[in-house]
Task: inverse folding
C-alpha cells in the first residue's frame, strides 16, 4: 500500500529569509500593459530577458516560446536557446572571442544576431562569417542620446562604411538598434515622450541613410522600458525591446512609468534587532539580498536600499531601508517623516521593494511565486547567473 | 592502448570574460600579514568567511581546517561545516525562525554560537535551548561605535539582564562580540589606532560588567579589517575577526590599510567598443560583474566602479570604470587627469580592481586562480551564494 504524504505548501510565514518574492498577478498585468500598448502602435515586442534570467519568466513575457528575445550575455542566449527560443539579439557590442559561441548557437538552429558600432568589429564579424561559411547577422548600434555605445544617427559616412563592411564582405546586415538609456533620468510625460521620439527618429534616420547607400536594413529596433511605454508613434520601427517592465521597480515608479503598486518583485526579510534610540529596526536583508543599487539616490524621492512593506506587500508610510551592510538592513523612517515606526518585534516579517529589479534579482537563485493577497507560495522558479 | 590527451591550461588570454581572477600570491601575503600581526598581540584569529564564500579560500585563511571561523549566513555555516569546520560564530542577530538550522548544526557536532542584543532574543534562545536540551551558546553584541546593532558598553543593566536571561534560563552565555564598522570611514594611522582601541575597550568593559554581575564571559571577540591591522594592544581580548583582509580592495587601500598592489581580486574584461570623442573605452564588465558597490565614492580618491589594470594586473595611470550598465563598463580617465588613454583595441583584455571585494566576489560563481606575474590559471575554486 502506498503511504500518503501531505506536503504543506511554503508560505510567506515559513520561507527561509531573505528570499525573493514574485507577485505573478502584478507581473502578468505589467506584461499585458506593454503588449497592449505595442499592439496599438504596430511593432513587435522583443523583450529583454536579462531582468528575469528565468525560463518561466521568459515564457510569460515573450510573444511565443520561440521568441523573439533580447539578451545581455551569451549564457542567457544559451540557456534560453536550450528552452526553445530561436530568435535572439545579443545586445552588447561583440568581441571576436565571443563569436565561437555565437556560431555554435547558429549551428544549433538559433537565429542569433550580434550588435556592433565600428568598422573594426564589422570586419571581424565578416571574417568569421567567411571562415565559417555562415553569414552572421549584425545590427549597427545607434547612439540616440549619447549615454553609451553607438554611431550617431547623422554620422552617415561611418554608418555606411560599417554597413558595407558587413554586407559586402560576408556577414549579414540585419538592421539598426538603439537604446534610449538617457530616458532613465527623464521626468514627466513630456520629457519621456520626447525621449521616445528621439529614439525612434535616430534609428529611422540611420536606417534611411543605409538604405539610401544601397545596403539593406530590414530591422529597426528601439527600446527601453520608459520609451516603450511613452512612445506615441513608432513609424519606421519594426520592433521594441524592453526588460524591466515585467517586474518594475522603485526607479521606474520614480520616473513615473509605473505605480509603486505595480512592482512585482520584493525581498522577504525578518526582523533581527532594534536600536530604539536611533529609530532603527534591523532586518536580515542587507545589500547581499537587495544589491548595492541606489538608483533612487538621484531621484526626487530617495528610497534608500528599498521601500518597506508589510508581509502582504502594502507599503508602510515613509519606511525605507536607510542603510545596508552585507547581511543587515537598517530600516528607518525617511528623514523629516512625521510617521511612527511600526511595531515589528524580533521575528516579524516585511517585504522590501527594490530600487532596481535587474540588480536585486541577480542576488538570488530563484523566485518564490505568490498571487496578490495570498500567503501561499504557488511555485518556485529558478534563476541563473553568470556569463 | 590508452589514448593520450593534452589539456591546455586556460590563461588570462583564453578565459571567457567577464570573470573573477584571484592572485594567490597576493592572497597568501595578505593572510600571512594579519596572522603575523596577531601572533605578536596574542588573541587568536577567527576569520570572517563571508568575503571568500569558498572552502578553498577558507582553508587558507583559517588557523586550522576545523576553524575557528565567523559567518554571515547559515548557508555559509552549513557549507563550511560540511567541509569540516567545527567552531563557528554566526555573526548576525538571531531570529527565532533560524534556530532550527542552528540546532541541526549543533546536533551534527558543530560548535556554532549565535549573537543577540536584546532580552527578547535571549529568552527565545533560552526557550529553544530548554526545549531541545541543548545549551545554545550566545554572545552579546556590543555597540562600540554606534554604526549598527548592539548594547552600549555602559548599558550595564541591559547587558546583565540579557546575560542572566541566557545563563540562568537554559542557554550558554559564551561572551561578548563587537565590530568597529565605523573604522571604514576613519582615515590615517591615528584615527585607525583610536578605532581599534575603542573597539577593544568597549568589548572589555562589557565583559567586565558581566563578570562583576556574576555571570560568565569567557570570549571577548572584536574585529574589522582596519582595526585588526591597526590594533596596538589587545589586552582582555580573546579573539579577532576580520574578513576582507584576505583579498583587500580599493576601499581598504583608500583607508590606508593596504596598498593597491596588495589587492588580490580583479575582474578580467574584454574591450567591446570605443567612443573616442568622449574618451570612453567600453568593456564587457558592467555592474553585473563589478557589483553596484561604490564604496570609494565618499573617499578622497573616487575609483568609480573600479581601477583598470593591464592583463597582468599593473594599474594604468588614472584609468577607472567611470560608469556601468548591466553588462557594459565605461572606462575613462579620472576627471582632470593629464594622462592619455591607453591603446586598447576591440578584443583587448584588462583587469579591474574592485571597490569592495565582498560585493564583487558575490557576483561570480568561482575564482580563476593565478600567480603573480603568470598568465596561467592554476586552479578553479568554486564560490557559493544564497542563504
Result:
Amino acid at each position: 500500500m502506498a503511504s500518503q504524504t501531505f506536503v504543506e505548501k511554503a508560505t510567506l510565514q515559513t520561507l527561509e529569509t531573505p528570499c525573493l518574492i514574485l507577485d505573478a498577478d502584478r507581473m502578468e498585468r505589467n506584461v499585458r500593459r506593454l503588449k497592449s500598448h505595442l499592439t496599438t502602435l504596430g511593432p513587435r515586442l522583443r523583450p529583454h530577458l536579462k531582468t528575469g534570467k528565468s525560463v518561466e519568466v521568459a515564457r510569460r513575457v515573450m510573444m511565443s516560446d520561440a521568441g523573439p528575445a533580447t539578451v545581455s550575455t551569451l549564457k542567457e542566449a544559451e540557456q534560453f536557446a536550450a528552452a526553445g527560443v530561436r530568435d535572439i539579439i545579443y545586445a552588447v557590442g561583440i568581441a571576436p572571442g565571443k563569436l565561437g559561441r555565437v556560431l555554435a548557437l547558429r549551428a544549433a538552429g538559433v537565429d542569433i544576431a550580434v550588435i556592433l558600432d565600428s568598422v573594426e568589429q564589422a570586419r571581424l564579424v565578416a571574417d568569421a562569417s567567411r571562415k565559417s561559411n555562415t553569414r552572421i547577422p549584425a545590427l549597427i548600434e545607434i547612439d540616440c542620446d549619447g549615454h553609451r555605445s553607438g554611431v550617431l544617427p547623422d554620422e552617415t559616412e561611418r554608418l555606411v562604411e560599417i554597413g558595407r563592411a558587413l554586407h559586402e564582405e560576408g556577414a549579414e546586415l540585419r538592421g539598426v538598434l538603439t537604446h534610449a538609456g538617457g530616458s532613465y533620468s527623464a521626468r514627466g510625460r513630456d520629457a519621456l515622450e520626447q525621449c521616445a521620439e528621439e529614439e525612434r527618429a535616430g534609428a529611422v534616420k540611420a536606417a534611411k541613410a543605409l538604405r539610401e547607400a544601397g545596403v539593406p536594413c530590414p530591422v529597426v529596433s528601439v527600446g527601453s522600458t520608459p520609451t516603450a511605454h511613452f512612445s506615441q508613434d513608432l513609424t519606421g520601427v519594426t520592433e521594441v525591446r524592453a526588460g524591466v517592465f515585467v517586474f518594475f521597480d522603485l526607479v521606474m515608479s520614480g520616473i513615473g512609468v509605473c505605480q509603486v503598486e505595480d512592482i512585482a518583485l520584493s525581498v522577504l526579510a525578518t526582523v533581527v534587532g532594534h536600536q530604539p534610540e536611533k529609530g532603527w529596526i534591523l532586518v536580515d536583508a542587507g545589500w547581499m539580498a537587495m544589491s548595492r543599487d541606489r538608483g533612487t539616490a538621484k531621484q526626487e524621492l530617495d528610497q534608500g536600499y528599498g521601500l518597506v512593506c508589510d508581509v502582504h506587500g502594502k507599503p508602510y508610510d515613509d519606511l525605507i531601508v536607510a542603510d545596508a551592510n552585507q547581511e543587515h538592513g537598517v530600516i528607518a523612517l525617511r528623514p523629516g517623516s512625521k510617521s511612527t515606526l511600526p511595531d515589528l518585534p524580533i521575528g516579524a516579517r516585511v517585504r522590501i521593494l527594490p530600487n532596481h529589479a535587474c540588480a536585486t534579482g541577480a542576488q538570488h537563485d530563484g523566485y518564490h511565486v505568490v498571487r496578490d493577497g495570498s500567503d501561499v507560495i504557488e511555485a518556485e522558479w529558478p534563476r541563473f547567473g553568470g556569463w
